[in-house]
Specification:
By secondary structure, the chain is an all-alpha fold. The protein has three helices and no strands. The protein is flat. The N and C termini lie far apart (68 Å).
């Protein structure tokens, strides 16, 4: 079942790439290979090995959120300026 879902995702992604590329003929292999690379990368981040041991979707979803959160870098806080610190516009 998982292979069927993976194949369907790749198929739809390759089709989207073809559409985004102006529906040019002769690039089907290029679009397909790009879709496979994207799926492989997606699986590395979102579908790590520990998900295979989960018994239900609630456990899997919780582990997925943890895995995704662990790959994100915290954003630096933006410096806010007080309206009083702006130069006067003349």
């Amino acid at each position: 079942m998982q292979d069927d879902e993976r194949q369907e995702w790749i198929n739809k992604r390759a089709y989207s790439l073809w559409e985004a590329d102006g529906r040019q003929h002769g690039k089907d292999r290029e679009h397909w290979e790009q879709a496979v690379r994207e799926r492989d990368e997606f699986e590395k981040v979102v579908l790590p090995e520990h998900l295979l041991t989960k018994r239900n979707s609630v456990e899997a979803d919780a582990e997925t959120r943890k895995a995704v959160a662990s790959t994100r870098q915290p954003r630096p806080k933006r410096e806010t300026k007080s309206p009083l610190s702006r130069p006067a516009v003349i």
